[in-house]
Amino acid sequence: MNKSLSWWRPVAPWAISALVLVTLPLVVAGNGTFSIINVVAINIVFALSYNMLLGQGGMLSFGHAVFFGLGAYGAIHAMNLIGEAGYDGHGFWAFFPVYLLPLVGFACGALAALVVGWPFCRRAGTAFAMITLGLGELVAAGSQMVPTVFGGEAGVFSNRMVGPVWFGLELAQPADVYWFMAFWTLVAVFAMWAFTRTPLGRMSNAVRDNADRLQFIGYPPRNLRFLVFIAAGGFAGLGGGMAAVNYEIVTPESLGLLTSGLALLMAAVGGLAVFYGPMVGAILVTVMNSLLSDYTDASILYVGLVFLAVVMFAPGGLGGGIEQVRLAWRRGDLGAHLPCWLGGALAVLLIALGLVSTIELVYQISHGRDKLARLLGLEPDPASPLVWLGIITLFAAGYGVARVSGRYREARA
Amino acid sequence: MLEVIVFSTLNGLLYGLLLFMLSSGLTLIFSMMGVLNFAHASFYMLGAYFAYALGLHIGFWPALFLAPLLVAVLGAVVERFGLRRVHENGHVAELLFTFGLAYVIDETVHLLWGSIPVSYSAPEALRAPLFSLFGTDYSIYRGVTMMIAILMFVALWFLLKKTRVGLMIRAALTHGAMVGHLGHNVPRLFMGVFAFGCGLAALAGVIGGPLLSTEPGMAQSLGPVVFVVVVVGGMGSLSGAFYASLLIGLVQTFFVALDVSIGDLLNGLGFAVDPYGEVTGITLASIAPMTPFILLVLILIFRPRGLMGELEP
Amino acid sequence: MSEALNILGLKKSFGPAEVIRGVDLTVARGEVHAVIGPNGAGKSTFFNLVSGAFAPSAGQVSLHGRRIDGLAPEKIQQRGLARSFQVSNVFGNLSVFENLRCACFKQSGAGYAFWRPAGSVKRANRRAEEVLEMIGLTALRDSPAGALPYASQRALEIGMTIAGDADVVLLDEPTAGMSNTETTQAVSLIRRIAEGHTLMIVEHDMGVVFELADRISVLVYGEIIATGTPDAIRNDPRVKEAYLGEEAA
């Protein structure tokens, strides 16, 4: 590598990210697109905070949404306080701008983790997974019983157009909210990245790799887990605070198992072992969720299948894949790997096409309509054997390509 | 009052026994393979739906036998081509796999059978009352369900304690590697146990479907409770799962039957509080769905190895 | 006060089985003290008791005159007693350097720090580099520890044990499973460590033991049957009968 460029290395990802964030509004338009981008931003923070637990600290949690949701509730109640304080114009909240609400979310998430976390962090592994699952169910069910705090089924509403406005930045349209999201995402991602570089961040990797050894270099593993748990809870709460500002409503659903599962899904699809993996996962899963649901009723099924495929065939996730390509490029043998990787990609594509066709056809049979096929201008007839023959051909071709590229790899090795 | 107690006990036992049918399979799979099968309740749901779909064509009784068999075959396929593949990546990967599987099964059921409950019910003859108490009927079907569950417990116990396969399974629990060295085909044993466990879950679905309701949310509502049973009973302990199931079944049913608020309780204990306040006005009945999880958190904090378990999870 | 480690009447039972049956042992400051004994004599259990992995059933362990028995392993480590493991026990996904640095944070006063980058903890970085050099893994600095060859992993294991500034170091079979050349390297590493540390070693390789040890204790069926210089041990009839004789036969 060129020596004069060495200062550029660590700065480059941040500079490029900032550049992308600034130019994004110039290339995209429409409130719909901004809405999706804003959700992506929230999910990036949420998924990364989840990975502080699972990927960095080795703690598989099924209750991470509790901290996301409590952060969101804290922020939305604060938003209401700002609104009320606006009438008489004095008190602490009258001077608190809505832009800073993610900080309230952070405080609520971290506080909640601080309060409940200690007994949970005694062990990692299955015990931790189960106790966080229990916590999630408990909080989600319990929240229904205290409607003044959680708003019952309907949740708590608010209005983000309140309080002091700085630099004339109003949060009216999704496009306005974009800047708010971009700022906080950058801050949160940087903070979480910096965390991995601190002694505590490094020790959290150590506790993941080998908790027993840790005791003999002077650490009780529980202390480390607990601190990581609080930090992860705080950043989840920060994401919750962003969500509160974005949606102006928080429902008890945000505390439940489905939301926790979403974090796990995004982090695992993106890759647990690479810092930016969960960000990639958050982008993919969020975009898939919001785009596909317009075209097919099976969108959740597709997300589930993608997840399953990643767990089975690419345990490193998308981030792991990107890292492999990057390493090969730096080593200079990308060309040697490429045919085999492209073959694999082609096989995945063919099999995926076959699977999508099957699902949509089955769906058409059982429900009598199919949005995705119509979108593509197709009128497939599920009764025609030709259609099914085509699908079988897709599967067979995918399998064949996979076999051939597998052989090629073996032959080279 | 007596009426409430008698019927809560009967219903609690019934619910507990159903829970046991579900959790026995999960316990078996966990203790053998170390895999907490997140999709277990999804196999239970598949059992109910398969029985419903088959029952439309071949009648209730044949479907009762065929549906669990089909699900068991499906379980074997899942083990052979899915779980075995991720096994080498460790327990977290396995847990993630079953988590994704649960997603996929639940959504497939959504797609195939829609999001409203299907009308899967017991045959007319079984819905007749078995006996009447305090003017309320108790149907034959409920009696039959209890009987099947108890038979299952006995059969399972017999299978584990008295047969060669059971001996092998118990040996594999404690000395997994050794059983392999003795020339037994451990992967095939795993596949068999996984299939068997899924079949048990499906049986619970076939029988429980008409009692609870057969709808696409049934896996999600019962799944976490089944985990609670397994953890509270002690990971891998069949008798622990049995007692935990009954405990949770009874506690939950009794809470539902109690139309008393927290405030009433506190007043009864001599604390003067407003029985209609926001928190104090919460009735025990509305806490009922939370009781398993309260139990879970308490157990994991105070007795991590569960009621009958030997090892901490 | 020249005793680094003083062990008195140490006992441990697992259920009805008494594995350590009253061990008395003194390790002088600065000496290399080897514990030998046939398989199943309880050497590993003995190490686990001293380092805090198990709590003893009875007896005392004192480090520089302060009782440490019954303390948690991390407390014992912080008081200056560290141990290595028979089976390599490193942080597999972290680099060699990171493994060493993690073993230094606590003693560098940055144990749980999340407000400063790890690179700014000067003392930990310096110490990690020092140990890296000492164990001869400078060339493998950035390799993940889990991917190291066996002998390097054993060296790293020892490195992590000494990195935390403990002055009493317990090494559990440091040369187990090594080839002759690897053993020679390990012995010279241990000799370098012995300067400035008090060492207690469990070892099977008699060549290594007699080469390194100032004094040797022989543990048989949970009891110390003899303690003395290598020469004294070599000529002790009880030891010959219980241990060396066994090998000669």
Describe what you observe in this structure.
The complex is a heterotrimer of chains A (413), B (313) and C (249). By secondary structure, chain A is mainly α. Chain A contains 17 helices and 2 strands. Chain A has 2 domains: 27-280, no CATH class; 333-412. Helices cover 75% and strands 1% of the residues of chain A. A two-stranded antiparallel sheet of chain A has the order 1-2. In chain A, helix 2 packs antiparallel against helix 10, helix 3 runs antiparallel to helix 4 (101-120) and helix 12 runs antiparallel to helix 13 (299-313). Chain A is globular. The two termini of chain A are 28 Å apart. With 313 residues, chain B is mainly α. Chain B has a domain at 2-216. Helices cover 73% and strands 3% of the residues of chain B. Chain B has helices spanning 2-33, 40-58, 60-86, 91-113, 124-127, 140-162, 164-174, 176-181, 186-208, 218-233, 238-257, 262-268, 284-287, 291-302; strands spanning 129-133, 136-139. In chain B, a hairpin with a 2-residue loop joins strand 1 and strand 2 (136-139). The longest helix of chain B is centred in the N-terminal third of the chain and has 32 residues, at 2-33. Chain C is α/β, with parallel strands linked by helices. Chain C folds into 2 domains: 1-78 and 168-174 and 198-249, 3-Layer(aba) Sandwich (Rossmann fold), CATH 3.40.50.300; 81-165, P-loop containing nucleotide triphosphate hydrolases (Rossmann fold, 3-Layer(aba) Sandwich), CATH 3.40.50.300. Chain C has 9 helices and 10 strands. In chain C, a hairpin with a 2-residue loop joins strand 1 and strand 2 (17-28). In chain C, helix 3 (96-102) crosses helix 4 and helix 3 runs parallel beside helix 5 (150-163). Chain C starts with a strand and ends with a helix. The mean pLDDT of chain C is 87. Chains in contact: A-B, A-C. The interface between A and B is large, with 45 and 45 residues.
